[in-house]
Design brief:
globular; 8-stranded mixed β-sheet; alpha+beta; 567 residues
Length: 567
């Protein structure tokens, strides 16, 4: 049995956080979307993700869901700290202070309280995050969600993509037609396999025996101030525990050693008790087993024609600094406005070349950061001394030393400003490099604000109290720091092409020093596309490049050189 053909501008395979965010952003641009998802509507997701990055929260603010997310997850006053202990209920070695959500916007002390953004990070598990995104996306005009639907295959032509999918309840075949298709269907992506893209890198970095437990009595056994995350370090077992609801549910990661190649290589119950620091009398309920393998794999390409990959379909790595799901959402928000430009008619098809040119190098960089940190953590776990729990002054001194090392190693991943704000797009066909400065280098934890084209536009508050990003338009936004700068030629060129261009005059007194030019042109995703003191003489050529005509412009220049018109 076959069903009628369904039509949309974009077909998204997979309705996890990446696919839902992509659908939400496309809908905000007036692009129609069909989402194919194998799970039932509102079926509970896994507990994989525990952290929403600042960059992701900035985008959720734009999409209208940031406050809903802030109000969900752990109790408002539950500490978001990271504690390093000999066991969860054992002696504390060090602590990274992180504001609870009640104090998130007001706290000014500590390594995680200085974020230069309207939206600091948010600790929330995926079981609370995803339902909010789902309800929001499902209610948007132009978004159609097909649950219990398995994507099977696609063909593409010069006008669009035709996909087949199976209704998992009726076994009927559904035919779907769209201008573009995006695979957000996870590590085993059927879309990736059909386009012939290969995952390259290291298949196994770390195996983790992960268990979601219900233990209402555990909270009362933990001495001192509570924490969102606990790192247990003892010679019997090293592991990590995350508070899920702040009351009775906890996610416990048992990091397997190299000589433990299978998930059942060690006794799950005993390992869990060693991490928690409890004896055989302690009772708990196993809610689910969430075992996973940390990898460092990146697809060799993110696109074939009108078909794209995003999220785990494109890359897999150990999710240190929370950059598993958050990297996938960054993919989605990089791709969405490019697809919208083509669907809405103001973007040339060449604008889509920017997606792989920008995101593939970044995912390589982030995967290497994660890989490097994973290897350091593996070495640290193997180096835990036998006498770390010894009483007396010598034991105290040893624990203080181990605590300092743990803090220095991990503060960069939990307060990862570099991964949030430091990455930049170079070599993009829709970014105009000016050659004045190279983009500043960044680390996992550190970065330098910059308006070098390709960097994130540094945030500041406008004179009327709004965030700079609240003033951005749906396409390009020109920040004018000197009202005497004539931008009419650029506005005319944008209108001629139908390219959305908002001009924002900046009157704020407290502007970051990185803004050294009178004009800074920013994209919908808040990255700088061009900067200068004056609009260039050929504003039409600049707009043509911004809308994706780089290849045509390069061919035109070659033709002129051949004819001797230009040198």
């Amino acid at each position: 049995m076959t069903d009628k053909t369904l039509d949309a501008d974009v077909l998204i395979v997979g309705a996890g956080p990446v696919g839902l965010t992509l659908a939400m952003d496309l809908a905000s641009h007036g692009v129609s979307v069909i989402l194919c998802e194998t799970r039932r509507f509102a079926e509970a997701p896994s507990v994989k993700c525990n952290h929403v990055s600042s960059r992701t929260m900035e985008q959720f603010r734009r999409l209208g869901v940031a406050q809903q997310l802030r109000d969900a997850g752990l109790p408002a006053d539950y500490p978001n700290d990271v504690a390093f202990r000999t066991s969860v209920v054992g002696m504390e070695l060090a602590r990274i202070p992180i504001p609870c959500r009640h104090d998130r916007y007001t706290e000014t002390q500590g390594p995680d309280a200085w974020w230069p953004t309207p939206e600091p990070p948010h600790r929330i598990n995926q079981i609370y995050l995803e339902p909010i995104l789902l309800r929001h996306a499902a209610a948007l005009p132009g978004v159609q969600l097909l649950n219990r639907t398995q994507f099977t295959a696609f063909t593409q032509d010069s006008d669009g993509v035709s996909a087949a999918a199976t209704d998992l309840d009726s076994h009927a075949t559904r035919h779907i037609r769209g201008r573009y298709l995006v695979g957000c269907d996870g590590g085993g992506s059927a879309v990736r396999k059909q386009i012939g893209a290969r995952l390259e890198g290291m298949a196994v970095v770390q195996r983790v025996q992960s268990t979601l437990i219900r233990a209402p009595q555990l909270r009362a056994l933990i001495p001192g101030k509570l924490a969102w995350s606990y790192y247990a370090m003892n010679p019997r077992r090293c592991g990590t525990m995350f508070a899920i609801d702040g009351h009775e549910t906890w996610l416990v990661h048992n990091h397997l050693n190299a000589e433990e190649p299978e998930f059942d290589s060690v006794d799950r119950d005993q390992a869990l008790r060693n991490i928690l620091g409890v004896g055989p009398e302690f009772s708990y309920e196993v809610v689910s087993k969430e075992d996973w393998v940390g990898r460092r794999l990146v697809a060799n390409r993110f696109r074939e024609g009108r078909v794209f990959l995003a999220g785990d379909a494109a890359h897999l790595w150990v999710p240190y600094a929370g950059y598993g799901m958050n990297a996938g959402i960054a993919d989605a928000l990089n791709l969405s406005w490019l697809l919208a430009a083509c669907v809405r008619g103001w973007g040339d098809e060449g604008i889509l070349d920017a997606y792989e040119a920008e995101r593939l190098p970044i995912t390589e960089q982030v995967s290497n950061f994660a890989m490097d940190h994973a290897q350091k953590m593996i070495r640290a776990r193997r180096a835990v001394p036998q006498d770390i729990e010894a009483p007396g002054p010598e034991g105290d001194a040893l624990r203080a030393e181990i605590g300092r090392e743990a803090y220095e190693l991990n503060v960069q991943q939990f307060c990862c400003a570099g991964l949030n704000f430091g990455y930049f797009y170079s070599g993009s066909p829709i970014i105009v490099a000016d050659g004045e400065h190279a983009p500043p280098a960044y680390s996992m934890g550190g970065f330098a604000p910059s308006t070098v084209p390709g960097c994130r536009a540094p945030h500041f508050w406008l004179a009327d109290g709004r965030s700079l990003y609240d003033a951005f338009g749906p396409g390009y936004t020109l920040l004018r720091f000197d009202r005497s700068a004539d931008v009419s030629a650029l506005e005319r060129a944008a209108r001629a092409y139908g390219m959305p261009l908002a001009v924002v005059d900046i009157d704020a007194a407290d502007v970051p020093r990185a803004y050294m030019h009178r004009l800074v042109l920013c994209r919908a995703d808040q990255h700088v596309a061009w900067r200068g003191a004056h609009v260039p003489p050929d504003a039409y050529e600049l707009v043509a490049l911004l809308r994706g005509e780089a290849r045509r412009l390069a061919g035109h220049r070659r033709q002129l050189r051949w004819e001797g018109v230009v040198a």
